[in-house]
Write a structure and sequence with these properties.
It contains five helices and four strands. The longest helix has 16 residues. It has a domain of 98 residues: Endonuclease, Chain A (3-Layer(aba) Sandwich). The protein is globular and about 55 Å long. By secondary structure, the chain is of the alpha+beta class. A four-stranded mixed β-sheet has the order 1-2-3-4, with helices on both faces. 37% of the residues lie in helices and 17% in strands.
């Protein structure tokens, strides 16, 4: 006997599609996690599990965008750029995305996919050094007041 509401049989219960209540960015991020490119997979193998000293998330939604890798402790966004990022339309889209992220306090690092394919360990080490950098530089002092920098 099939119980009503179990989703089996000829009932109207369906599947697929986005679960209700999720933002479209979250649905996109979940799909992108399943469909990562080979350079992204290579890099993720080296970044995951605090291997670099900083915790990273992959395909993480930030505002209306999904970033390839994100470290919340360093507010570091890492974008892996393949050949498609050399197209004029994609260059403009990337610039808009980077501007949004910088304006919201994130540090954006773009790494060429070919560099990851050449030496994924070196790319991961470079990202680790970026994640370890201090967020604030108190030795630089406060910013100048209005008019002080125009002497």
């Amino acid at each position: 006997m099939i119980l009503p509401g179990t989703g089996r049989g000829t009932g109207a219960a369906g599947g697929g599609g986005a679960p209700r209540g999720l933002r479209s960015e979250v649905v996109t991020a979940r799909r992108l996690r399943r469909e990562m490119s080979y350079p992204e997979v290579l890099l993720w193998q080296r970044l995951r599990g605090n291997a670099t000293g900083a915790k990273f998330r992959r395909q993480h939604p930030i505002g209306p965008y999904v970033v390839d890798f994100y470290s919340s402790s360093a507010r570091l966004v890492v974008e892996v750029d393949g050949e498609v990022h050399a197209l004029p339309a994609q260059i403009a889209a990337d610039a808009h995305k980077d501007r949004f992220l910088r304006d919201n306090g994130y540090f954006v690092a773009r790494i060429n996919a070919a560099d990851i394919l050449d030496d994924a360990d070196k790319a991961a080490a470079a990202i680790a050094s970026l994640a370890a950098r201090p967020l604030h530089r108190p030795a630089d002092g406060p910013p100048p007041r209005d008019g002080e920098d125009q002497e």
